[in-house]
Amino acid sequence: MARLTAIVLGSAAGGAFPQWNCRCPVCDLAWNGDPRVRMRTQAGIAVSAGDGRWTLINVSPDLGQQIRATRALHPREWRGSPIDAVVLTGAEIDQIAGLLSLRESTPFTLYATAASHAAVADNAMFDALTMMKKCAVDPGGCFMLSGGIEATLFTVPGKVPLYLEGENPETDGESAANVGIELACGGARLVFVPGAAAVTGAMRERFARADAVLFDGTLFTDDEMLRSGLGKKTGRRMGHMPIDGEDGSLRAFEGIAARRIFIHINNTNPIHIAGSPEHRKIEAAGWQVAEDGMEIVL
């Protein structure tokens, strides 16, 4: 029987960890080589059903580095790649910029909502992807990936990409601009939601039937960027619910038995630090922190 396998290509939020221009207390540990923290590239995963073909879910600017670090994604022929497809859960820069690393004359299919396809099409640089086949997917509709993986995109409270924001963006509405993905194969289910402003009842139902959930771990507290002096927005204003607090993800996932893993972790987030009070708190609640190269076999 086919087994659903996911490899975490990158586990950090936009800017990676440590962020290239940051010396906040958490980044400072990484720059100084503190063994309690691990360097992380920007978030994305690769999934396969064991037939040698892989689908990438989001493609960050770090994709070239991630491919080189992941043996399963190395080319096996004179010219070609085991990468068969890419699925987008949105069109933020750290979700689509890696497409440009896939422009060297090897075909693949890009699955995304019409909103994300439109954002890619509006940038002439992506015209260089002459071998990319585009396939629009409506949220709620099922489509098949290589190896017999059944995929479903579903709307998630959030916002449009930062570069498409107007003066008063809606940060918690549900639209095709921000989605999660549910993957099913051989009786196993994996859910990936790298950005969410809230957890709805429908989302809880998906999580409850999943074997593993990779979920938005951007900020530990909603005001983290404000308190650190590194930003002027709360987490929710950025479209990300916090981990901690009465309305945070720890509370929202209570009673969910699936394996739970935080991904898309901002450079300021203290869960980067093994043994920190925040890291201990999420572990006590049954959560893990995603790491680059982590393999999940279901």
Question: What would a concise description of this structure say?
Answer:
The protein has 298 residues and is an alpha/beta fold. The chain is 17% helix and 27% strand. It has a single domain (5-290), classed as Metallo-beta-lactamase, Chain A, CATH 3.60.15.
Would you write up a description of this structure?
The protein has a single domain (5-290), classed as Ribonuclease Z/Hydroxyacylglutathione hydrolase-like (Metallo-beta-lactamase, Chain A, 4-Layer Sandwich), CATH 3.60.15. 17% of the residues lie in helices and 27% in strands. The chain contains eight helices and 14 strands. It has helices at 25-31, 63-69, 93-96, 114-121, 201-208, 224-228, 249-252, 277-284; strands spanning 5-10, 44-48, 54-57, 83-87, 108-112, 132-136, 142-145, 149-158, 173-185, 188-193, 212-216, 259-263, 287-289, 295-297. Strands 6-5-4-3-2-1-14 form a seven-stranded mixed β-sheet. A seven-stranded mixed β-sheet has the order 7-8-9-10-11-12-13. The chain starts with a strand and ends with a strand. The mean pLDDT is 94.
Helical percentage: 10-25%
Count of helical segments? 8
Question: Looking at the structure, what is the overall shape?
Answer: globular
**Strand order in the largest sheet:** 6-5-4-3-2-1-14
The name of the CATH architecture is: 4-Layer Sandwich
Annotated CATH homologous superfamily: Ribonuclease Z/Hydroxyacylglutathione hydrolase-like
What is the total number of structural domains?
A: 1
Flag low-confidence runs: none
| Main β-sheet description | 7 strands, mixed
Radius of gyration: 18 Å
Mean pLDDT: 94
CATH-defined fold name: Metallo-beta-lactamase, Chain A
Percentage beta strand: 25-35%
Secondary-structure element series: EHEEHEHEHEEEEEHEHHEHEE
Straight-line distance between termini: 11 Å
Number of strands: 14
